[in-house]
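Annex B. Sample input.
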Amino acid sequence: MPDWTYVPLEPIASTVIGERRTRRYALALLAVLVRLGGRHWIPIVFAHPEVPDAWRGRFGATVPVSVARDAITCLPVQGATVIHVHAVTAGDVDSLQAATAGRRCRVVAICDTASTAAAVAQFVDNTRVGADRDTLVLRAPDVDDATAALTQANSVVLADPELLVASGPGWFHRVIEAHEAIARADEPAPLRWPTRREATDVRGWPAWIWAMLAGVGLVVGGLGAAAITLGPVLLGYDRDYLGLSVSGLNEVDTHLVGFLQHDRITMAGNMVGLGTLYCGLAWGGLRHGRRWARNALAVSGVVAFGTWLYFLATGFVEPLHTLVVVALAPLLVVAVWRAPALPVRPRVSDGPARERAAALWGQLMMIGVGGGLVVAGTVISTVGLTAVFVPTDLGYLETSAEALRDANQNLLPFIAHDRAGFGGALVGSGLAVLLISLWGWRRGERWVWWSLLLGCLFGTAPALAVHLDIGYTTLSHLLPLYVLVVVVAVALWISRPFLTARSGTSHRSPRSSAVTSPDAVR
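Annex B, continued. Sample output.
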């Protein structure tokens, strides 16, 4: 056997329902997702980096037989290249054989006797009997300890399942990213404005500038839409399409102008919020060569700008909406056309365990916010393209859709365009929040915290203000907005120490100088 140094990674936090149950449930859930095809889409969705070739067979996890099947199924997708199954007895032979069927990583069985090792040798890659008393155990090491240990050619870094539950499923690729940052630390980081020569050739402009321009354009467009809504309400083409002025709308329904304003101000706030998120992705992500930021811009942008095609269903083509799409969509296309090749900035450590644990809860909450916005936007788009109104809308208007259609045949398509367009843009915003929370949640990434704070603030404050201003305060209608505000506030509050940590801040876990066996800490 080679002279390996084992680095078992111990739990950093207990859980509400108990570590053992949480470990089992988390691994089982991930395993189910992998069996449903997750081995193909999980690395894409979570932007997993490639495991360094030199780490293969040396970077993975150590698990008991009871969770071996799920661990061997799902952890290789996360980045593990070897799974050590410990405390294997003669009674576990059949279970281990079933667990290793179709495996996609090395499996080492730590057996109690030589006869057990002989029985399982045919379906694992290696076996060991008992514990190696000369193995050095490093207690509760962090990401920095793992990367340092892996620089030694004969070292093996193994994570306990409890650590993966406490640190999140992205622990493996955080270690890989830390290694990449160290390996490229000496490369220059060309974080600059374009030179004069580049400024004369649009192809030479850095991609992040084009993304920034698209974000600023959305902010300007949203502010312009808000100014129009709070001013004349209707532009010339609106009056021509409806055949009505603002006073004519008041004659149809005294609440109709306020209702249109509430739709359009909400849409304007969402544009400003989305533009803020795009600016954050451009400045904090794409500018630093983070390819996940480019992917987030691409995914969100396709949906947000693609909803312009809703006019095919509503029948109303709004010139201003069309102008914004035609002007800004090409900027975003140029920004995401090629993957960035800039060096990655050196990372900071994961920090204190309590800080990291709080940030994980915050991340979970923000992922929920992003997913909730996607669902809400999809529902709003569907309603806008079909029924146009929800019951509370008609309660506020004190009328029916049929009465409005009878009053003006173009009124429902006009309102439907606004509603469906807002729903589609909200899906784009939700995807941006979701992907930033999934891919950008790293200690010291202050731009992530500020982007989410400002993006959500600009997206929700105008909506809340206009509802209160026009008197549309039905609790069931505004309850999702209230919940959104509270969840975002709590999530960002508990995550602030982690996300806004100074770049020079580091945290080192204490090490034990004791020489013992890996099984002694389990």
